[in-house]
Design brief:
four-stranded antiparallel beta sheet, elongated, 153 residues, six-stranded mixed beta sheet, mainly beta, single chain
């Protein structure tokens, strides 16, 4: 994942060129900046009109912002169980999927509870039972996306 901050100079221009062609890259600009309409995932100040995330790309958010629309799309080629972890609280769950959350651990066994609503929380790991194989999109409207809590080298 590439994070780009708009500014001046050759390095910034190269970073932005790479960023606008990378699926899950966020481009941060000031709220008064004008950017080409072809750029995706632009955060102006503390707000993004639309953020589109796709499976297969790393996601690292360096600044908390509000997304007017946000979605994550993933292809599930087979039925069965998979993990799910989103950087935003999804308010619309796709058909053909059943979500369970961790509830406790007893007698060397992890226990999970089915989610009965169509809402899942941000930054919480879930188990997803895929009951129909296809591309699924999780989405939300007017949601806060927290800064990623990433540590490392």
């Amino acid at each position: 994942m590439t994070t780009a901050f708009a500014g001046t100079g050759t390095q910034t221009a190269i970073a932005l060129q790479d960023a606008k062609e990378t699926s899950d890259c966020l481009i941060y600009v000031s709220e008064i900046a004008t950017v080409p309409t072809t750029w995706k995932n632009v955060v102006k100040g503390n707000e993004a009109e639309e953020v589109t995330l796709t499976d297969g790309y790393a996601f690292c958010n360096t600044k908390t912002f509000t997304a007017k629309q946000i979605s994550y799309t993933r292809n599930y080629p087979q039925e069965g169980w998979s993990s799910l972890y989103l950087p935003f609280g999804a308010t619309e769950l796709p058909k053909g999927i059943r979500i369970e959350s961790y509830s406790d651990y007893k007698n060397n066994t992890a226990h999970f509870t089915p989610i009965v609503s169509s809402v899942i929380e941000a930054n919480i790991p879930y188990l997803a039972e895929i009951t129909s194989c296809d591309t699924k999109t999780f989405s939300a409207i007017d949601v806060q996306v927290e800064e990623s809590n990433v540590t490392g080298n």
